[in-house]
Each structure stands twice: as C-alpha cells, then as structure tokens.
C-alpha cells in the first residue's frame, strides 16, 4: 500500500522551488504539484497553470486531486484568506489565516500591533492623506523611510536620504498609485542605521521554534545600489548574529508577537 503524500505548493518564485526541492527529498512524499510554478519547479514537480491568487480554483484542484497537504508561499493569497478557505473545505494547509496575515499584509497594522504589545520598533506615523503625509515628511529629520502599507512585492519601501527623495516617494505611492491599493496608506519611519537580519519561527499557537537566521539583500544592483526588489539573494545563517542576539529577539519580539496574536484570537 502506497502511503506517500501528495503535496501542493502555491507560488511561482525561488522560495517555492526551494520548498519543492526539499520536500521531494522526503521518503513519505510522493507527487508534488506547484501552482503555477516556474521553470525550476517543472524539473522536480508538476506545474499547474492556476494563479496563486485564484483561491477557488486552487481549492477545487486540491479536492479533485486528493491533495494531502498544501504549502502557501506568496503573501497575496495569504492576505486573501486562502488558508481559511482551504480549512473550510477540510484540506490540510500550512500558512497563517487571513487575520494573522495582516501582520505581513499591512505595515500600518503591524506597527500599531507592535506599539500595542510593547515590541521595540522604529518611531513612526501612518497617513492615508497625502497632504498630511507631505507636511509630516517636511518636518522630520532626513534620512527617513517611506513605506507603502500594503503588499508591494518587496518594492514598497524607500530609504530617503534627501527631502526630494522622500517627497518623490510619497507622490509615487499616494498620487501616482504605483503600487495600487497597497498605497492607500503609508508608514513613515525614522531611519535606523545598521545591519538587517530576518528571524523566522514556526508556531502551533502555543509554542514557537526559531529557524536559522537569514539576511536578505534587496537592492537591485551590486553594492546595495538601486531600488529594492523582492530579494536578490540571501545569506543564511548570518555569521555575525550571536546566540545572545537571538535570545533577545526571541524574548522581546517573537514571544510578545505570539502573545498578542493569542489575545486577538
């Protein structure tokens, strides 16, 4: 009797390729589908021509093909409630619910959540009115950081080193609408100098397990030049991060985030 699991991975990026590559190495995994996938995933899995945001078609595909477990990669379907919909259909799925995904989908929501929970974060203000945002920017020390609140494929953040850059960034987001609805609200932050590190964790709602550290390099050109992208490359684990730093992040950030999420249900 074949007890191998059939897996569906949703997404089309390098992340989904890596997930398919690793899952394919597990003895208990049989067939792997990736929707919509890419050239890389086609070498180790079967690509399915369904967009990551077409939640109903993905649910129907999972039911028809008796998918045992689905892994969601991109932010957009998570923000759209794909995990909630899969659970409603009785399907096993890995990813945050629509409510939990707000921490990623809305920077304004995330910053308010951090302030509410006492989680350290850069000083900030949020605006949905362009003129008010412009007046605030003109009153703040430079450099500062302008962020489209919504999902913008990793491109919605600009470190502004001149007032002209800050004004141009605000205009692009709120007037020219280069990120669409993601620019309905902006977050304007103080600029913090230093190295960046990402620390991810798995959680069952009660406990959490940290993954190895990673450092994302987002600017499109060498030498950290040019606009941000969704990520040009990543170093993991990060050599300069100490166990003491990880413990501090665990206690001051991860634990309070989980506590706040539990309080909100």
UniProtKB/TrEMBL annotation:
Domain of life: Bacteria
Coiled coil (residue ranges): none
GO biological process: purine nucleobase biosynthetic process; purine nucleotide biosynthetic process
GO molecular function: ATP binding; metal ion binding; phosphoribosylamine-glycine ligase activity
Known EC number: 6.3.4.13
InterPro entries reported in the protein's UniProt record: ATP-grasp (IPR011761), ATP_grasp_subdomain_1 (IPR013815), PreATP-grasp_dom_sf (IPR016185), PRibGlycinamid_synth_ATP-grasp (IPR020561), PRibGlycinamide_synth (IPR000115), PRibGlycinamide_synth_N (IPR020562)
Keyword ATP-binding recorded: yes
Record pathway: Purine metabolism; IMP biosynthesis via de novo pathway; N(1)-(5-phospho-D-ribosyl)glycinamide from 5-phospho-alpha-D-ribose 1-diphosphate: step 2/2
Keywords: ATP-binding, Ligase, Manganese, Metal-binding, Nucleotide-binding, Purine biosynthesis
Protein name per its UniProtKB record: phosphoribosylamine--glycine ligase
């Amino acid at each position: 009797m074949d007890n191998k699991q059939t897996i569906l991975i949703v997404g089309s990026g390098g992340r989904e390729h890596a997930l398919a590559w690793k899952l394919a190495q597990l003895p208990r995994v049989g067939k792997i589908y990736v929707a919509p996938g890419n050239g890389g995933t086609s070498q180790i899995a079967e690509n399915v021509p369904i967009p990551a945001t077409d939640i109903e078609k993905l649910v129907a595909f999972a039911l028809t093909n008796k998918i045992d477990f689905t892994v969601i990669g991109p932010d957009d379907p998570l923000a759209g409630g794909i995990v909630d919909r899969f659970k409603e259909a009785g399907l096993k799925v890995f990813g945050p619910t629509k409510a939990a995904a707000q921490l990623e989908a809305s920077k304004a929501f995330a910053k308010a959540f951090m302030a509410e929970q006492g989680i350290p974060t850069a000083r900030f203000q949020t605006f949905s009115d362009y003129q008010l945002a412009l007046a605030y920017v003109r009153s703040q020390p430079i450099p500062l950081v302008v962020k489209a609140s919504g999902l913008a494929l990793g491109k919605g953040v600009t470190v502004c080193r001149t007032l002209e850059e800050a004004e141009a960034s605000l205009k692009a987001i709120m007037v020219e609408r280069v990120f669409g609805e993601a620019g309905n609200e902006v977050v304007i932050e103080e600029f913090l100098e230093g190295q960046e590190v990402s620390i991810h964790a798995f959680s069952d709602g009660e406990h959490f397990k940290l993954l190895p550290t990673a450092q994302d390099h987002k600017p499109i050109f060498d030498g950290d030049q040019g606009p941000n992208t969704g990520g040009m490359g990543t170093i993991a684990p990060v050599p300069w991060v100490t166990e003491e730093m990880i413990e501090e992040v665990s206690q001051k950030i991860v634990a309070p985030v989980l506590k706040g999420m539990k309080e909100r249900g």
